[in-house]
Design brief:
Elements lengths: L1 H12 L3 H15 L1 H8 E8 L3 E3 H4 L11 E2 L3 E4 L5 E9 L5 E11 L2 E12 L10 E4 L28 E5 L5 E7 L5 E8 L4 E9 L2
Parallel strand pairs: 1-7, 4-8
Antiparallel strand pairs: 1-2, 3-5, 4-5, 5-6, 6-7, 9-10, 10-11, 11-12
Helix pairs in contact: 2-3
Length: 209
């Protein structure tokens, strides 16, 4: 019983994807925007320029802006097993651009790393609530199939060019996401979460090139 209580206490104080997002944003101000992106990126992290590119390649030669962008999470959509989270919230750049960011985070042995980063520009600044809204996938029921039916690959390939049509999911299949970039550079990003009875779409984002 003591061991279970101790494990629960440690879990309650373990860093969350929201903590990781906030640390990521703070480091962007301390060590540089792109340096922070490199620090927190998973090996197979994907960005868009506007087609899908490996972050490790795209970030290698990027010149740091004079002032880093600012952002903060206002929502976090999590899998039942707490191993995957999709964070979203407002961002602002030093040159006056605003929008909503979306980051997919994976929790590994060394902590949280982002594997997908995308943004959607907006005409006006996006308001942020005082406390992020956290949505947990249900741990009941038995998810069958995949959260997103297509494409067949569970993740981008480790070599070559990343797919312009790809997807990922948590190990317990309670959270899934996919993206598709057409020839014009228009990107659609979706997130599906298990409710205990079916998958519900939590995010639908269409970003013009």
């Amino acid at each position: 019983m003591i061991a279970l209580l101790l494990a629960a206490a440690l879990s309650a104080h373990a860093p969350t994807a929201i903590d990781a997002e906030r640390a990521f944003a703070r480091d962007a101000q301390k060590i540089g925007q792109w340096a922070a992106f490199r620090k927190y990126a998973a090996h197979d992290a994907v960005m868009f320029t506007p087609q899908a590119v490996w972050a490790r390649d795209s970030l290698r030669s990027r010149k740091e802006p004079a002032r880093a962008a600012t952002w903060s999470p206002s929502a976090s959509i999590m899998s039942c097993d707490r191993s995957v989270a999709v964070n979203a919230g407002p961002y602002a750049t030093a040159d006056g651009h605003h929008g909503r960011f979306t980051t997919v985070w994976l929790k590994g042995k060394r902590g949280w790393n982002w594997i997908f980063d995308g943004g959607e520009p907006t005409a006006q600044a996006v308001p942020s609530g005082p406390v992020p809204i956290v949505s947990h996938a249900a741990c009941t029921g038995h998810p069958t199939g995949a959260p997103v039916a297509t494409p067949p690959a569970l993740s981008p390939p480790s070599t070559g060019k990343p797919n312009d049509y790809g997807r990922g999911e948590s190990a317990d299949r309670t959270l899934g996401w996919d993206w598709k970039v057409d020839k014009t550079g228009t990107r659609i990003f979706r997130v599906y979460q298990w409710t205990g009875r079916h998958y519900a779409q939590r995010v639908y984002q269409r970003v013009a090139p």
